[in-house]
């Protein structure tokens, strides 16, 4: 049994290393051949149009407005976050996005309160799917904050949760704070992606290829970002399952 467990562990790590090496090789191929082609045909014309059409202040207003309003009409705001990363980097880009997210998640919460009983009826018709959502409305403010944070990090569709949250009786302050903290990983991934796109576009526009160290650092940074996101997401999903199990045990007592 011990040897079997050891071999299984070695095999699991070997598969993980293989996948990491494969993704790294795929990333290098992308940066050397596929990336420059896409940059010249698609990204660079869009960036040139953007810089010629909008000033920085106008672009900032458009990014803020899109991040704030798109989630209320069920449109993903991730492309706007990429543009924030491309145009403003980590500092001001993060402030733009987090400010827009605060508004973009608050509006559906208050709209949902107008349809409180109707949303509650919908949740009651799907008790199994709604059980995770209802965790956010249980316990103290800290427990609500923690549950909302894990929901934001997990793969659960956050645009839907924005409207359903109020029907789970989660208070607004824990909802908002959990949302802000839970969305930080996604925001940094989006900003990093935008910065990476800008770096590739600048290199392609100048007819210069990235040096080997630049390629390796970019690929490694991207893989590290993806790996961190996956780990955090898996952990959040696991913690949600544990919270759900604890809640079910309390109900049985």
TrEMBL record:
For the keyword Transmembrane helix, the answer is yes
Pfam families annotated for this entry? VTT_dom
Name the domain of life this protein comes from: Eukaryota
Domain VTT: start-end pairs: 75-195
Keyword Lipoprotein in annotation: no
Q: Which InterPro entries match?
A: VTT_dom
Its keywords, alphabetically, are: Membrane, Transmembrane, Transmembrane helix
Membrane spanning stretches: 12-38, 58-76, 88-111, 173-195, 215-236
Provide the protein name: SNARE associated Golgi protein
Q: Which organism is it from?
A: Artemisia annua (Sweet wormwood)
């Amino acid at each position: 049994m011990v040897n079997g467990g050891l071999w299984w562990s070695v095999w699991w790590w070997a598969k993980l290393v293989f996948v990491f090496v494969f993704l790294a090789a795929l990333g290098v191929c992308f940066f050397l051949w596929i990336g420059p082609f896409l940059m010249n045909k698609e990204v660079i014309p869009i960036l040139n149009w953007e810089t010629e059409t909008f000033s920085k202040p106008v672009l900032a207003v458009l990014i803020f407005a899109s991040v704030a309003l798109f989630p209320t009409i069920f449109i993903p705001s991730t492309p706007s976050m990429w543009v924030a990363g491309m145009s403003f980097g980590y500092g001001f880009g993060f402030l733009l996005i987090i400010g827009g997210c605060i508004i973009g998640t608050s509006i559906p919460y208050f709209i949902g309160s107008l349809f409180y009983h109707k949303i509650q009826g919908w949740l009651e018709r799907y008790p199994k799917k709604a059980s995770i959502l209802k965790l956010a409305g249980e316990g103290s403010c800290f427990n609500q904050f923690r549950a909302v944070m894990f929901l934001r990090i997990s793969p659960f569709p956050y645009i839907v949760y924005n409207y359903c949250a109020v029907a789970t009786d989660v208070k607004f302050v824990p909802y908002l704070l959990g949302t802000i903290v839970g969305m930080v990983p996604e925001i940094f991934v989006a900003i990093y992606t935008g910065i990476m796109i800008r770096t590739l576009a600048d290199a392609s526009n100048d007819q210069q290829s990235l040096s080997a160290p630049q390629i390796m650092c970019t690929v490694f940074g991207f893989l590290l970002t993806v790996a961190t996101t996956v780990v955090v997401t898996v952990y959040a999903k696991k913690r949600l399952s544990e919270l759900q199990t604890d809640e079910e045990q309390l109900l049985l007592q």
